[in-house]
Amino acid sequence: MTTADCPVIAAVDGSSHSREALDWAAREAVRRGLALVIVHARTPTRRDVRETQLRGAEELLTRSVRRVGEIAPDLHPTTLAPLDFPAAALTALSRDASLVVVGSRGLGGFRSLMLGSNSLATASMAKCPVVVIHSGPPEEDGGEAAQAYPDIVAGVAADESSEAVLDFAFATAASRPGARLRIVHGWTMFSSMLSGGPVFDRDAAAGAAERTLAELTAGRHERYPQVEVVREPVGGSASRTLVTASATAALTVIGRRRGGESLGLGLSPVAQTTLTHALGPVAVVPC
């Protein structure tokens, strides 16, 4: 099975955030022509309550399938109820998935937290891209809201780690007719110095950042001629730009470096700030 054939996984727990994630996942599965798997992880507990827990899981999954039927009648999702902690179950399933979609907070989350621990852990450890659904602009196929927020926003670094982010962002924009791809690259004089660029000339550093973006996107226009691309080198805080852009974006795409999962080092400060404070859906792509 190739990545293109792998399903979209939607995690549900009965919370309003997970219902939004399910809706988003169902529409995305239709856009990409992929199967949908709805997952409710049953947290390990005492044996004497597992039967009740399983009945509750089955009822939740049945309601979720019914909800998908209302959104995407031609989509016929399958369901899973693994006995495992949510982040662990989703990480294991991500090995054979195109995309994992989770709500920003679940039933167990504190209302004061903008991002739940399961969402953060899944985004930090999954083997495939993870989309975290923050409450944002509603998506109705063909509706005014969908037309009002067409942008896909991608935050990129000036190195090879951006390849996976750009591949995912271009493919996502191509699957949404009329979508525009905004590619954001934050730079500072310090980052220019570290990359061997201009150190004291701000205009020269800005020009170097523009050339970096052009190099990163070279060749993709031929593969995705239907995608309008806007390159945005930003002098200063990339995370602030990405958080602001997320309010009017259909999806904001950021990268996560592979290899640091066990130590919790996969998310850079820019990625973690964007994921925590975004005002719309965010995709975290392993790089």
H and E order: EHEHEHEHEHEHEHHHEHEHE
Arrangement of strands in the largest sheet: 3-2-1-4-5-10-9-6-7-8
Mean of residue pLDDT values:
81
What is the makeup of the main sheet? Answer: 10 strands, mixed
Shape assignment: elongated
Distance between the termini: 21 Å
Oligomer: single chain
CATH topology of the largest domain: Rossmann fold
Radius of gyration from the alpha-carbon trace, in angstroms:
19 Å
Count of distinct structural domains: 2
What are the low-pLDDT stretches, counting only 5+ consecutive residues below 50? 108-114, 137-147
Number of helical segments with 4 or more residues: 11
- Give the helix level as a range of percent: 40-55%
Secondary structure class reads alpha/beta
Specify the CATH architecture of the largest domain: 3-Layer(aba) Sandwich
Structural overview:
The chain is α/β, with parallel strands linked by helices and 287 residues long. It has 2 domains: 3-133, Rossmann fold (3-Layer(aba) Sandwich), CATH 3.40.50; 144-286, Rossmann fold. It contains 11 helices and 10 strands. The protein has helices spanning 16-32, 50-71, 86-93, 117-125, 144-148, 162-174, 189-194, 202-217, 220-223, 238-246, 269-277, and strands at residues 8-11, 36-39, 78-80, 99-103, 130-133, 151-155, 180-187, 228-235, 249-256, 282-286. The chain has a 10-stranded mixed beta sheet with strand order 3-2-1-4-5-10-9-6-7-8, with helices on both faces. Helix 1 (16-32) packs across helix 2 (50-71), helix 3 (86-93) packs parallel to helix 4 (117-125) and helix 10 packs parallel to helix 11. The radius of gyration is 19 Å and the shape is elongated. The two termini are 21 Å apart. Mean pLDDT is 81; it is low at 108-114 and 137-147.
